[in-house]
Amino acid sequence: MKKKDGFPGQQSYVIPDKIVTSLEQSPVCSDLFLTDIGYYPNAKYHFRERKNGIAQNILIYNVVGEGELKVGDLSISIPADHFIIIPANTPHYYYANPKNPWSIYWIHFSGSKAKQIAKPILQPTAVEKTSTSRISERISLFQEIFYNLAYGFSLEILEYVNLCLNTLLASFTYLEQYRMKNEYFSSDPINRSINYMLENLSDKLKLDNIAKTVNLSASHFSRLFLQRTGHSPIDYFIQLKIQHSCKLLDKQSFSIAEIARSSGFDDQFYYARQFKKVMNMTPSQYRKR
Predict the structure, then answer these.
(1) Per residue, what are the HEC states of 5-61?
(2) Which residue of 50, 76, 131, 153 could cross-link 69, Cys pair, CB 3.0 to 4.6 Å?
(3) What is the pTM of this model?
(4) What phi and psi, each to the nearest 5 degrees, are found at residue 220?
(5) pLDDT digits (tens, 9 = 90+) for 113-148
(6) Residue 164: which residues within 8 A CB-CB, separation 6 or more?
């Protein structure tokens, strides 16, 4: 079985050709603009073949699982926490690993400076989860674009999302500069541990995992964290997950089950209990309010 799309929880937006033509002539967007963007979670049987390539550059950001890209005789593995850029007009096909399917964010982009920003070409590049990586902020940029495109393709919306696109693409192609903001906090173990939590909101971290990232024993780290924040590390991590889910609840395009999974809760009912414990209301009540 092969699927181009149709994955549970997916999001995707395709800008109509007539509107793309107007973007090519826009003084705000002509230098860099997207034509398609999406997120395919757990994309089992995902497969795309383009024998002649397409007119846009393609960025694929794999956050979970594995995938494979074929370009001519070249076979390129794309593991989790890696991105790759396929240049325009390059024949290719790619597919999810059948045993460990990927979850990918993807963008088709063009414009006069697209070729310059599309680097490195055909090289899978690691986006490591560290205390300075700002992955959660990058994902928030994707969500910001999705949220706005859900309201249609007005000129104001397209100008805004394509200005966001500049920052989003730069967060991949200028990784060191993007991470520099958090380098100022890297010497403090509590700040580093909180940054690490923020980069792993969809995971189930244990106290030992977090303490190891700052080279402290679990007991010493736990005491320091409690003194600084007034909370245990795991309670604080759960609060960050709930805070993240509140942002998604504000956006009506996500179901509560999808938000629970995105926030690292496999069980929607357990998520609802933790949400009520932190927010003193259920996720449904929060959304209605």
Answers:
(1) CCCCCCEEEECCHHHHHHHHCCCCCCCCEEEEEEEECCCCCEEEEECCCCCCEEEEE
(2) 76
(3) 0.70
(4) -65, -45
(5) 998 888 888 999 999 877 677 888 899 999 999 999
(6) 141, 144, 145
Arithmetic mean of pLDDT, 252-277: 87
For range 62-79, the mean pLDDT: 95
Length of the chain: 289
Q: Which of 183-187, 218-222, 225-229, 239-243 has the lowest mean pLDDT?
A: 183-187
Look at residue 86 and tell me whether its pLDDT is greater than 90: yes
* Higher pLDDT among residues 98 and 179, named by residue: 98
Q: What are phi and psi of 72, to 5 degrees?
A: 60, -125
Q: How many CA atoms lie within 13 A of 70 on its CB side?
A: 13
Instruction: Tell me how crowded residue 252 is: count the other CB atoms within 10 A of its CB.
Output: 10
Per-residue confidence (pLDDT) for residue 62, from 0 to 100? 97
CA 33 to chain centroid:
19
3-class state of residue 71 by DSSP: strand
Q: What are phi and psi of 207, to 5 degrees?
A: -55, -45
Which residue from 57, 7, 9, 6 is spatially nearest to 261, judged by alpha carbons?
9
Q: Which two tokens stand for residue 65?
A: 């699982």
Q: Distances from the Cα of 45 to the Cαs of 5, 103, 178, 262, in angstroms?
A: 9, 12, 33, 21
Reduced 3-state DSSP string for 235-248: HHHHHHHHHHHHHH
